[in-house]
Known about the structure:
By secondary structure, the chain is α+β, with helices and mostly antiparallel strands. The chain has one domain (3-97): CATH 3.30.1330.30. The protein contains five helices and four strands; from the N terminus they run H-E-H-E-H-E-H-E-H. The radius of gyration is 12 Å and the shape is globular.
Amino acid sequence: MDSKFFNLLGLARRAGKLSWGHDTALFAIKTKKAHLCILASDVSERLKKEFFRECTYDGRNIEIIELDKTMEDMKSIIGVKTGVLTIDDEGFRKSLKKYI
């Protein structure tokens, strides 16, 4: 992954376009606010299955990306230790996709 990807994640956080943590990210998905779901590499299989199911349930078709970064790495990138986050803006989603 390009460092621009992680810089853009930080920018999205400062712009208020991220939902992080289990409950907040799940709420963003269920309310169709989320455009992209990002998982850290060290999240549990149960959490992965739950988010894969929710992102595809009822025609949501929200793309999921599994990063090669741990939750601790996510803390240094966005300032919050989290295993799951969602991008809640289509413009940020398109920009992030360029660097994957």
